[in-house]
Amino acid sequence: DDVVVGDDTMIYAGVKIYEGCRVGKRCVLHAGAVVGSDGFGHAPDAEGHYHKIPQKGNVVIEDDVELGANTTVDRATMGSTVIRRGVKIDNLVQVAHNVEIGKDTAIAAQTGISGSTKIGTNCVIGGQVGFVGHIHIADNAKIAAQTGVIGSVKKEGEELMGYPAMKLKDFLRMSVYTKNIEKLVKRVEELEKKINEKQ
After folding, report:
1. Nearest CA to 86 among 112, 107, 114, 111?
2. Is this structure's pTM higher than 0.85?
3. How far apart, in whole angstroms, are the C-alpha atoms of residue 58 and residue 80?
4. Contact assessment for residue 98 and residue 119, using Cβ atoms and an 8 Å cutoff
5. Among 83, 102, 176, 199, which residue has the fewest nearby CB atoms (within 10 Å)?
6. For 99-121, what is each residue's pLDDT tens digit?
7. Are 29 and 12 in contact (CB under 8 A)?
8. Residue 11 and residue 67: Cα distance in Å, rounded?
């Protein structure tokens, strides 16, 4: 009910578009993509039993967006989950409720974006990146594969990698240190031995 799909949009077999959602022009929705499934909203009562929070919003996908196979975009709890013009999303990506993805951002497979996260324009996000909820990612950010983003990225054009996410240069430096830990431990042990022998 009340779904709108723009001109020249290609919808492959098995795609599901839930009620009230909007898909723009010249979009491509690959097989098995789901647009508008309920956001993950449950509240525990005093006894710890979970009760569903109604998900009353929708999904708005602007023009020239591509969704990969079996990607899911959850409807907002209230308002809209929004994917801006020109966004390209790979297979098996989870976009949670009330997320907003800025124009011309590219997201590789198996990335998970938690609720109410806002991603800027022209970002590049590698595969299997995980975002916690309620954070902001600055424009032109580049986030390497398997990075865990646990806080907002405030600097435009920032390059991040690792868990927790850190500057790419810092991550690469730490990787070199990690490879040399065994040698460093042996050197420390040898130095301790020499010091103890002199005492």
Report:
1. 107
2. yes
3. 5
4. no
5. 199
6. 999 999 999 999 999 999 999 99
7. yes
8. 10
pLDDT in tens, 5-29: 999 999 999 999 999 999 999 999 9
Q: Please state, in angstroms and rounded to a whole number, the distance separating the CA atoms of residues 110 and 128.
A: 5
Distance from C-alpha of 95 to C-alpha of 116, rounded to nearest angstrom: 10
The Cα 10–Cα 60 span in angstroms is 16
Contact 109, 91 (CB under 8 A): yes
- List helix spans (H) across the chain: 168-179, 181-198
∠ CA 120-123-125, rounded to 5°: 120
Question: Using CA atoms, how far apart are residues 128 and 130, in angstroms rounded to an integer?
Answer: 6
**42, 49, 51, 97: which is the annotated catalytic residue?**
97
Q: Does the annotation mark 97 as catalytic?
A: yes
Cα–Cα distance between 102 and 48 in angstroms, integer?
37
Cα–Cα dist 74/78, whole Å:
11
Location of structure tokens 């954070």: 135
